[in-house]
Amino acid sequence: MIKVVKFGGSSLASAEQFKKVANIIKAEKERRYIIPSAPGKRYSADIKVTDMLYECYGLASKGKDYKQSMENIKTRYNEIISELGLDLSLENEFKIIEAGFVGRSGRDYAASRGEYLNGIVLATYLGYEFIDSAEVIFFDDYGNFDAERTNTAVAEKLSGIEYAVIPGFYGSMPNDTIKTFSRGGSDITGSIVARAIKADLYENWTDVSGVLVADPRIVDNPAVINTITYKELRELSYMGASVLHEDAIFPVRKEGIPINIRNTNAPEDEGTMIVESTSKKSEYTITGIAGKRGFTTVSIEKDMMNSELGFCRKVLEEFEKQGISIEHMPSGIDTMSVFVSQEDFVKKEQEVLAGIHRNTHPDTIDIESDIALIAIVGRGMKSTRGTAGRIFSALAHARVNVRMIDQGSSELNIIVGVDDCDFEKAIQAIYDIFVTIQL
Ligand code: ASP
């Protein structure tokens, strides 16, 4: 059995955290390939090393005084090294990095050094081989991740190495410059390595004990989801739940490798298993709840709309022309409503409205803003009677007015629209009916 193990920034923010990480790794000999992030925050007002690097590079590349900023970065690493008692100096590396910054080697290069240096420190501490991701993770000329070339290179490289540290977040371009994934991208590196070596499990260690049923900023101490499918997670992530980088599921999914989200600060917790499919039922009928504020609805009414060929297309085209993506589109006999992001819509609203008027001659167009969408996601809903009933009675009891209802044909989710001001109350009410009271 082989496990690929990724540790997030807060898991490697200090020497104390490094010790926890080493204990976790050494507890199981199957934990063979380790993907570190850059040191993250030690406390809530702290600054992540990645952000320090962006800032320092900004100064150096503009010819401004960057020295203090660079010193602060060095201190973060040197503190970890000395507190761990390692016989390691990064002075040479710092010199190369500094020269690179002054020579404008790029923002991606700058940001990637956080993972690169942390990888060296962790490999030294564990006594494992260090592999520079620039040698095995590749992007093409257009900056797109080159999955197949990378897969072969990682598999080949690791075939002869039993234990290794491979830094997250970056790889190299065909011209040998460094490129990073988007923020939080070490999750993707872990997934890529897991796929390449056909790991049995991809463990992703962070600072929460798994994916939570609801946002902890809204629901006090929410339950942890035991098992979730990739599809369910995608629905929740799209609606704002953030545990794992969105793109991290694609590589492992190709090989059917499960992901286990674990908590470095509570290693005894089992965390959440993310799987392709499962016969395990969700504990609470629903798997999770997530939501987003800030939507606008544009409702169009026209007599005989239903028999007018191409009406919907003409309406939607006006949004498309202005580059506005559509979230939902519930419709009635002579009405249709289009849900869009408020932020995107306000910039182009007059163009869209004029276009709809010109091309479809509606009787009325109504606009309402400050709508929140809440997704209630669960593979168990399909086979459980009364789920929708419970949701709406909970919302009615909480005196929340439902503005829209949409159930996907996959029956994996029900989406409700409520006023922004009812957003938190609605999530709490739905959580309570399924989890707290378990009616
Ligand atoms: N260090 C990078 C970031 O802060 C990547 C990562 O942590 O996954 O976004």
Secondary structure category:
alpha/beta
Q: What is the strand arrangement across the widest sheet?
A: 3-4-2-1-7-9-10-8
Q: Tell how many strands the DSSP assignment holds.
A: 16
Radius of gyration: 25 Å
Instruction: Report on the biggest sheet.
Output: 8 strands, mixed
* Helix content class: 25-40%
Number of helices: 13
Shape: globular
End-to-end Cα distance: 41 Å
**Strand-and-helix sequence, N→C?**
EHEHHHHEHEEEHEEHHEEEHEEHEHEEH
Tell me, rounded to a whole number, the average pLDDT: 95
Give the distinct bound molecules. aspartic acid
* Beta fraction: 15-25%
- Spans with pLDDT under 50 lasting ≥5 residues? none
In short:
With 439 residues, this protein is an alpha/beta fold. Helices cover 39% and strands 21% of the residues.
